[in-house]
TrEMBL record:
<keyword id="KW-0479">Metal-binding</keyword>
<dbReference type="Pfam" id="PF00107">
    <property type="entry name" value="ADH_zinc_N"/>
</dbReference>
<dbReference type="GO" id="GO:0005737">
    <property type="term" value="C:cytoplasm"/>
</dbReference>
<dbReference type="InterPro" id="IPR036291">
    <property type="entry name" value="NAD(P)-bd_dom_sf"/>
</dbReference>
<keyword id="KW-0862">Zinc</keyword>
<dbReference type="InterPro" id="IPR020843">
    <property type="entry name" value="ER"/>
</dbReference>
<comment type="similarity">
    <text>Belongs to the zinc-containing alcohol dehydrogenase family.</text>
</comment>
<dbReference type="GO" id="GO:0046872">
    <property type="term" value="F:metal ion binding"/>
</dbReference>
<keyword id="KW-0520">NAD</keyword>
<dbReference type="GO" id="GO:0004022">
    <property type="term" value="F:alcohol dehydrogenase (NAD+) activity"/>
</dbReference>
<dbReference type="Pfam" id="PF08240">
    <property type="entry name" value="ADH_N"/>
</dbReference>
<keyword id="KW-0560">Oxidoreductase</keyword>
<dbReference type="InterPro" id="IPR011032">
    <property type="entry name" value="GroES-like_sf"/>
</dbReference>
<dbReference type="InterPro" id="IPR013154">
    <property type="entry name" value="ADH-like_N"/>
</dbReference>
<dbReference type="InterPro" id="IPR013149">
    <property type="entry name" value="ADH-like_C"/>
</dbReference>
<protein>
    <recommendedName>
        <fullName>alcohol dehydrogenase</fullName>
        <ecNumber>1.1.1.1</ecNumber>
    </recommendedName>
</protein>
Length: 361
């Protein structure tokens, strides 16, 4: 094993633990830290400084998805920190002690199965998911995997980089598979939210025209400041399908990136998309899509699921942010605020993203 020179790994740490599905969150100050000698080949210990909070963390806590999380569980999958130890006999590690790295939803995959080879690492049968099937980033120290942690570009500070690792990668990848080219229109329902405000910026960086769909003056101001070309307020609009079509010259957008946690956004998109358009499904309600088959066929609509991103997508998403083209709007809090953050998430009260400072570094 090897440990970062001059660094002493403590025996215990502060961690936000969910003991069983649906149980309240407990911030424990005496949670054990896996020691360097106990790391397996390929594992690394990351000293976390910042972590974002994602809506998925709430699903993990509540266990309300068809795929169940492990318990007890430490959630979190938008973490940034320093590698302080690497397991003995780790072959060809792409990262070294002292590197600042990101931990994303996909913690590890085998890299050798058909899915890994074809660029669908997230569908690997041996995939490990941060804060879901392995402990995540709501703790001072987390065990991660040298092949999958993502180096953070020096231009980005850790707090600003955190939410790129899930919200950023997810929206960037969804745009990559949206079958659009420079100058095309993309519809972004929920454009003023955590995923949406990043999607606006990635879409602009990719040369797309953005129609932002959300509600309220604050969100309108935010998305316009980020470069949205058109705006539809879903609360004041009398006919949202007609308004979206009109705003895009009458034909509708070439793609829609739907991050909603309810069915309506998906059903609606098939109605307003341009002929030949692509509906990219990103939000994960456990529901039927309800897309009309006649119009899907008649309009040659393509329906595309997009699930997080690969190691390469993460590197690209961070590079675009490092170039100054994407900035996360976030509020910073401490790890002990996580309980309140969950309540605010449930109530839909969070604008942008919340990033927790886990330890001062
Ligand atoms: Zn996430
Ligand atoms: Zn695999």
């Amino acid at each position: 094993m090897s440990t970062l020179q001059g660094f002493t790994i403590p025996k215990t740490q502060t961690a936000a633990v969910v003991k069983s599905i649906g149980a309240p969150l407990e911030v424990q100050t005496d949670h054990p830290v896996k020691q360097a000698a106990d790391l397996k080949p390929g594992e690394c210990l990351v000293h976390i400084s910042h972590t974002g909070v994602c809506h998925t963390d709430l699903h993990a806590k509540q266990g309300d998805w068809p795929v169940k999380p492990m318990n007890p569980l430490i959630g979190g999958h938008e973490g940034v920190g320093i590698i302080v130890a690497i397991g003995e006999n780790t072959p060809n590690s792409p990262v070294k002690l002292g590197d600042r790295v990101g931990i994303k939803w996909m913690a590890d995959s085998c890299l050798n199965c058909e899915f890994c080879r074809r660029g669908f690492e997230m569908n690997c049968p041996e995939v490990k998911l941060s804060g879901y099937t392995v402990d995540g980033t709501f703790s001072e120290y987390v065990v991660s995997y040298t092949n999958h942690v993502t180096p953070i570009p020096k231009e980005l500070d850790s707090a600003g980089a955190a939410s790129i690792l899930c919200a950023g990668v997810t929206t960037y990848k969804a745009l990559k598979v949206s079958n659009t080219k420079v100058g095309d229109w993309v519809a972004l329902p929920g454009a003023g939210g955590g995923l949406g405000h990043l999607a606006v910026q990635y879409a602009k960086a990719m040369g797309l025209k953005v129609i932002a769909i959300d509600t309220g003056a604050a969100k309108e101001k935010l998305v316009k400041s980020l470069g949205a070309d058109a705006w539809v307020d879903f609360k004041t609009s009398k006919d949202i399908v007609a308004d979206i079509k009109a705003a895009t010259g009458g034909l509708g957008p070439h793609a829609a990136l739907v991050t909603a946690a309810s069915q309506t956004g998906y059903t609606q998109a098939v109605k307003y998309l341009r002929e030949g358009g692509t509906l990219v499904c990103v939000g994960m309600p456990d529901a039927e899509m309800g897309a009309n088959v006649f119009w899907t066929v008649f309009k040659s609509i393509r329906i595309q699921g997009s699930y997080v991103g690969t190691r390469q997508d993460a590197v690209e998403a961070l590079d675009i942010a490092a170039a100054g083209k994407v900035k996360v709007t976030f509020e910073q809090k401490g790890l002990d605020a996580l309980k309140d953050v969950y309540e605010d998430l449930e109530a839909g009260k969070i604008a942008g993203r919340v990033v927790l400072e886990v330890s001062k570094q």
